[in-house]
Structure formats: structure tokens, C-alpha cells
Specification:
Order of helices and strands: HHEEHEEEHEHHEEEHEHEHEEEH
Strand content: 15-25%
Strand order of the largest sheet: 3-5-1-11
Radius of gyration: 24 Å
Helix content: 10-25%
Largest sheet: 4 strands, mixed
Number of helices: 10
Distance between the termini: 43 Å
């Protein structure tokens, strides 16, 4: 049999960044960030459910090195989703850059930019916040049709219908069936019906979430981020910041692991808000979510505080003794974060499997 002499098939190929990795050259986000980039920190809520009644940043702004402190009054009021999904996303537009209503411990209250980390940390301690505590839903089994609404706002918007209803605390739902389940179960000689509880989890990539943003020489917002969703990030930034997609460039260098967690835009919006020139305190910005903050709350595909309750599965199945083919029914319920991401994937992925 004659063999073809292919140019690439059957030959070793050198990876484009293999020598940089081997020699320890700059390839990751932090390798590229300039030393004079602004340090960006988020002041986070200590309450599971609260309203910001008053917030005073005047003392924090007097800290030497502090460039700007943003609150819910200083950011756009357009809701968006941070899930890395193709448009129209099956995740509702339910979040603001900063919201007056806080929905979980760790929800951002203010964004601080400073010339160094010491100044940013000091400013965080000096922001004075008066909270109005609100009833909190802490059990996913009590959330559905509860009079306490996680998202009572009128501008909650699902771009793609996935069976969600914010007036029911329902982010997504779906039913798929084939045949009469109850009838087949009634005819089975053996029926096994169990409820299974699986664990919550968190991806533990070596490099945590981090982003760098600046204005490039063409007047575009240039974002360098440790992300798995370059083009989704551009669309998310465009909606959140009110900038045309043509004026945004997102670049992904080598990333130190992601495992699906970086299919969510975590640091990009805060970086983009400071990286532009159209507001006070603008300048090259570099927010990082450190591991201690990331481990503060177990979650699935999202930032600190957006805890997902471990899913619960009810799984009845039946098998007639005289047949090899049986019946399988699967019901799953999961508590998604107060700010939802990937709800359609939860329904379709769990149910489909």
C-alpha cells in the first residue's frame, strides 16, 4: 500500500509557546501586566440579604494613593449576565456592576482603585455603609414560590426562554418524557426509588481569576484576561459598560487552568470600568481574585459568595423480571446562585445525562 508523504500528519509539531514555557518567559496574565497598573479591590457585603441605605466614601477617597471609589450610584444601570454562553444566553440578565440590593455574603458593595494594595485595603476599611437587613432564603427547598423574592426587580430579563420566572424564584426548568412512566412502573416486578445528594464543588486551578484592562493606541478598551471565553467576554463587557463591541478587544494569554470556572466573566467588568478613559479614576487596572477569597465560599462557575447548594436527585427505576430493557426516571433540583449563571446547562446537562 502506497503511503503519502504528508507535511504535518505523522510529524511532531512544536507548540507556539513551548519555548516561552520551557524558559520561563512571560506568558501568563500577571507576566504581562505593567507594574504601575491600578490595584482594584471589591468591598463585599457581610450579609446574606440587605439593602444599601447609605454609603459614604469621602474618608476612603482621602487615603494617599486611592484613585477612585465606585458605588451603585456611579455605574451603569443595565443588567447583564456573566455566563460564557452564545447569544441569546440561557442565563437571565439579572446583575448590575454594583447593585443597591445585596443578595449574598460577598456581593460587591463598592469598587476601589488605588496605586498600591496597601492603599486599596485601607480604603476598603474606611468606606462607611449602612445596611438595611432583608429576609434571606437559605434553603433551596424553600425558595420556589416563596413570598421573599431574590429578584423582585422589573427589569429581570431572560434573553432565551429556559422556563425561568423571577416571581417564583425559578431560574430555569425543563421536562422531557417519553411514554407513560407511572404505567410502566406499575407493571414492573422490581422498582427502586432513591434520592441522591451530591456534593458542592469548586474548581482549584493554579491561577485564580485575574484581568488587566487599558485603552490601546486606537482608543479601544484592551482587556487581557485569564479566561476561557474571549468573545463572550467582549459581548458581556459591551452590554455592561455600554461600549460597542467594535471598541473592545479581549486577549487571552496562556491560562493556568480553568476547568470550566473561567467560562464566567469574573474580573473583566471591574477592570473594564477603570481601564477606560470616559470616567474619573481611569487608568490601566488589574483586579485579582486571590485564592483565600475564592475559597471563602464553595460555588460552581462564579465569583466568591455565589454558593450553589449541592444538587438533589430523585431517581426511580423499574425492571420487569422477564425483560432486559427497563425504565428510568430522573428528577433533579439544584440551588443556583442568587445571581444566576448557566441555568440551562444545569437543567439540560443533569437531565440529559
Amino acid at each position: 500500500m502506497a503511503t503519502e508523504n504528508y507535511q504535518y500528519v505523522g510529524h511532531a509539531m512544536r507548540k507556539k509557546d513551548s519555548m516561552q514555557l520551557l524558559l520561563g518567559k512571560p506568558v501568563y496574565t500577571d507576566d504581562i501586566v505593567p507594574r504601575d497598573a491600578l490595584v482594584v479591590k471589591l468591598l463585599r457585603s457581610p450579609h446574606a440579604s440587605a439593602l444599601v441605605e447609605e454609603i459614604d466614601t469621602s474618608i476612603a477617597l482621602k487615603v494617599p494613593g486611592v484613585v477612585a471609589v465606585y458605588t451603585w450610584k456611579d455605574v451603569p444601570k443595565t443588567r447583564f449576565a456573566i455566563a460564557g454562553q452564545t447569544y441569546p444566553e440561557p442565563s437571565p440578565y439579572d446583575r448590575l456592576i454594583l447593585d443597591r440590593q445585596l443578595r449574598f455574603v460577598g456581593d460587591p458593595v463598592a469598587i476601589i482603585a488605588a496605586e498600591n494594595e496597601k492603599a486599596a485595603n485601607k480604603a476598603m476599611r474606611l468606606v462607611k455603609v449602612k445596611y438595611k437587613l432583608l429576609p434571606a432564603i437559605l434553603d433551596m427547598h424553600e425558595a420556589l414560590d416563596n413570598p421573599v423574592l431574590v429578584h423582585p426587580e422589573e427589569d429581570w430579563y431572560p434573553p432565551c426562554p429556559v422556563g425561568g420566572d423571577n416571581r417564583r424564584n425559578l431560574v430555569a426548568s425543563d421536562v422531557e418524557s417519553d411514554g407513560d412512566v407511572e404505567k410502566v412502573l406499575a407493571d414492573c416486578d422490581v422498582v427502586i426509588d432513591h434520592t441522591y445528594h451530591t456534593k458542592a464543588f469548586q474548581q482549584a486551578m493554579m491561577e485564580t481569576f485575574r484581568t488587566y484592562a487599558e485603552m490601546d493606541r486606537y482608543g479601544r478598551l484592551h482587556v487581557i484576561s485569564s479566561t476561557q471565553i474571549v468573545f463572550h467576554c467582549r459581548r458581556i463587557l459591551s452590554r455592561a459598560l455600554g461600549i460597542p463591541k467594535s471598541r473592545i478587544r479581549v486577549e487571552k494569554p496562556r491560562i493556568g487552568g480553568g476547568f470550566g470556572a473561567k467560562q464566567t466573566a469574573v474580573c473583566e467588568v471591574a477592570a473594564g470600568r477603570f481601564g477606560g478613559r470616559a470616567h474619573p479614576g481611569a487608568g490601566p487596572a488589574h483586579p485579582v481574585q486571590h485564592r483565600r477569597l475564592r475559597r471563602a465560599r464553595p460555588h460552581h462557575r462564579g465569583p466568591v459568595g455565589t454558593q450553589v447548594h449541592p444538587p438533589v436527585h430523585r431517581q426511580p427505576g423499574g425492571l420487569p423480571l422477564c425483560l432486559r430493557r427497563g425504565l428510568h426516571q430522573f428528577t433533579a433540583r439544584g440551588g443556583l446562585p442568587r445571581l444566576r449563571r448557566h441555568p440551562g446547562h444545569f437543567c439540560g446537562g443533569v437531565g440529559g445525562q
